[in-house]
Amino acid sequence: MSDPSPTLTLPTPRSSPRWSRLAPVGRRLFSVLLTLLGLLLLTFVIGRVMPLDPVLSIVGPDADRSTYEQVFKQLGLDKPLPVQFAYYLGDLLRGDLGNALLTGHKVTEDIARVFPATMEMATMAIIFGTCLGIPLGVYAATRRGTVADHVVRVISLFGYSTPVFWFGMMGLLVFYAWLGWAGGAGRVDLAFDGMVPPASGFLLFDSAMAGEWDVFRSAIKHVTLPACILGLHSMAYISRMTRSFMLAQLSQEYVLTARVKGLSERGVVWHHAFRNILVQLLTIVALAYGSLLEGAVLIETVFAWPGFGQYLTSSLLLGDMNAVMGCVLVVGVIFITLNLLSDALYQVFDPRTRR
């Protein structure tokens, strides 16, 4: 009996290593673009169905019908919504966000002017909130059920649930009106306003580089109170999450093993348990920072802070959808960038994610 004929085995096609490395990047980029597109579409539709009329904001309520219709057509509002959105996307791809009705300038110029003020305050706030919130959370977790734990939890609950504008008004009343420790409204005293050219928009940096130390001290005095109030809100959130993460780690078997081996409590907590929650805390801090950058509307209103939040609020009340959509796009880019940055830091601090 003859042997069966040999079967021909075809080689299995394999993707190249280069494509394997680029595929996740392409998927992530597609997800980012799809998220931004959906965010812009949602904001665009909401802006068009709002009861605010941007034409009246330009021509005023006393304009005649012909003037109203002329401006209506110049803004492209006579075209269907899909066509308006397509035109907007085309301008966006060319880097043109349109002109703002509030100032008459380009939206990109306005955002570049007001955003450094918010970023300066939010950066100081997140530093304050992180440096205070993480130690408090770790301290409460290591003393679970004690008076110290309950005090930290009450402080966190109070800081997280109390409206930030109430903190702002009480802070102005106590530290500005009564004690005179903090500065008032604005970024700097009126006597120093305009003394330092806005090279970067960050007043602390610009005044220090120009050697205007009186302006620098005035700016520090003005930014400290609103930054601490925002930082208190972030501190409450960060401390609560740190406590939860640490409690989960301190109940693990490796912590008991480390204690049985005779390691100090400080070494067990900070060198073992805390290192395992560091990756989670990166995401928490990044999201808290993003919330501060786009959510400082109330505190900027209370302190008359000429920042991004106040610009967004004024544009929204005026019905200036070019400015509103530009601000929404910036907020979306901020959150996506912070998420991508936290993912990158994951791979730095957690080798398991590199696979």
From TrEMBL:
GO terms of molecular function: dipeptide transmembrane transporter activity
SUPFAM superfamilies: MetI-like (SSF161098)
Subcellular location(s) per record: Cell membrane
UniProt keyword terms in alphabetical order: Cell membrane, Membrane, Transmembrane, Transmembrane helix, Transport
Transmembrane intervals: 29-50, 121-142, 154-179, 219-238, 281-303, 323-346
Main subcellular location: membrane
InterPro entries: BPD_transp_1_N, MetI-like, MetI-like_sf
A GO-annotated cellular component: plasma membrane
Domain ABC transmembrane type-1: 115-346
Membrane topology: Multi-pass membrane protein
Superkingdom of source: Bacteria
Family stated for the protein in its record: Belongs to the binding-protein-dependent transport system permease family.
Name of the protein described by the UniProt record: Binding-protein-dependent transport systems inner membrane component
